[in-house]
Each structure stands twice: as structure tokens, then as C-alpha cells.
Write a structure and sequence with these properties.
The chain is α/β, with parallel strands linked by helices. It has 3 helices and 15 strands.
């Protein structure tokens, strides 16, 4: 039996009740086509987003196994693309740049840990197995198997960069 994206997200949390309610409704809005039910889910999702000060569009492409730790003040541009087994923490910004050579939105690979108050902006590509340290400002491409920290971002290669940080992968 194939698991739904919501079921795979649940697997990332120690207990199903630990998943933020808005995340549950984010996935329900994305996967439900029955109009009356989808309308109800949209209303609940919108209310929960307002309570938590979270800006994530229901159309944002986020792979299975999303984990949100301390789900407050998170902004993700609707055009950003996030892979599987992503960890996002409080105060994260994944945003668009409107001018210059990096005009556009980020594409983030699989198994990426994004620390508290980190900002990823512009048309950048973040590889797989990347740890972005808290308070980092990332506006450049980051290769797979890396740790990123600081402003401007400093990139250090490290195999298994997210080992011990991303648990219960799907």
C-alpha cells in the first residue's frame, strides 16, 4: 500500500500528535479534490497559518517527510521547491529575489536541515544532505554534503552533514 504524503509527514514526528495542525491541513488541502471538504480544509489551514504567523501557500511544492520544529514565523515563497525529508525551524525565510543575477526562488534538495532564523533567498540551488546553520543568510548555490553558516555564507564540505539532525526519514 502506498502511503500518502500526509502519512509520510506523520512518520517524521515521534508522535502523530506532535505534527503542527497547520501542516496537517496544508497536506489535506493539497490532496483533497472534493470541493466541500477542500473548502473546509482551506478555512482551517488559513486560520492556523494566521495563529502561527506562517506564510506557506497551499500550492508550494514540498516533498514527503516535511518536519517543522517550533512552527512559528516561517515564510516560504509559493514558487520555491523543497525536496524530501526537509527540517524547517522557527523564523526560517525561503524567499524570492526580484532583481540581479539571482532573480527567482530557491530549489532545495533532499535531507536538508534549516536552522532557526536562517534565510535562503534568490534563484539558488541547495543540494542534498545540507545543514544550514541558524542565523545563516544563503544567497549562493550550495553543493550536496555541505554545512553552511554565516553572512555571507561560508560553505564547508562534509559527508553526512545532516547525520543526527534528520531523523525518521521517509
Amino acid at each position: 500500500m502506498t502511503k500518502t504524503v500526509l502519512q509520510q509527514d506523520y512518520m517524521r514526528y515521534p508522535k502523530a500528535s506532535d505534527m503542527p495542525a497547520f501542516q496537517k491541513y496544508f497536506r489535506k488541502v493539497q490532496s483533497t479534490s472534493f470541493f466541500p471538504l477542500q473548502f473546509i480544509y482551506k478555512v482551517i489551514f488559513r486560520l492556523l497559518k494566521e495563529i502561527r504567523h506562517i506564510e506557506i501557500s497551499r500550492t508550494t511544492q514540498i516533498g514527503e517527510g516535511l518536519y517543522i520544529g517550533h512552527a512559528y514565523n516561517i515564510t516560504i515563497n509559493p514558487n520555491a521547491v523543497l525536496g524530501r525529508n526537509i527540517n524547517i525551524h522557527r523564523g526560517v525565510l525561503i524567499g524570492q529575489t526580484n532583481r540581479g543575477g539571482r532573480q527567482g526562488t530557491p530549489v532545495i534538495g533532499n535531507e536538508v536541515w534549516i536552522g532557526i532564523n536562517a534565510a535562503i533567498v534568490g534563484k539558488v540551488t541547495i543540494g542534498d544532505d545540507v545543514l544550514i546553520a541558524p542565523n545563516s543568510y544563503v544567497n549562493c548555490d550550495v553543493p550536496s554534503h555541505s554545512i553552511v553558516f554565516g553572512n555571507p555564507c561560508i560553505i564547508k564540505h562534509r559527508e553526512n552533514a545532516t547525520e543526527g539532525y534528520i531523523n525518521r526519514k521517509v
